[in-house]
Amino acid sequence: QVQLVESGGGLVQPGGSLRLSCAASGFTFRTYRINWYRQAPGKEREWVAYIDSAGDRTDYADSVKGRFTCSRDNYKNMAYLQMNNLRPEDTAVYHCNAGWRWGQGTQVTVSS
Question: Which of helix, strand or coil describes residue 51?
């Protein structure tokens, strides 16, 4: 069964950190670029970051550059999004994506 399952979201104060995880199964994870997207209530889905299949290259949306970091472990079929210095505007449901595959998302809420 092809699956992407995100975890690690939660409620955090501004300036705090969270690490999101994306667990993959049912496909050849190591051959896929992983994208992270987010969608806030009432807003369109926004691309946040990507990491290439080997983990050698990453890129980030300007809104998160310098605060978020992608990584992956192809032996464990896992991808990660380290989020530091979180802001209220980072509040959203975060999804990982590989090709046509999407996870169900994990809620991140940044609030004092």
Answer: strand
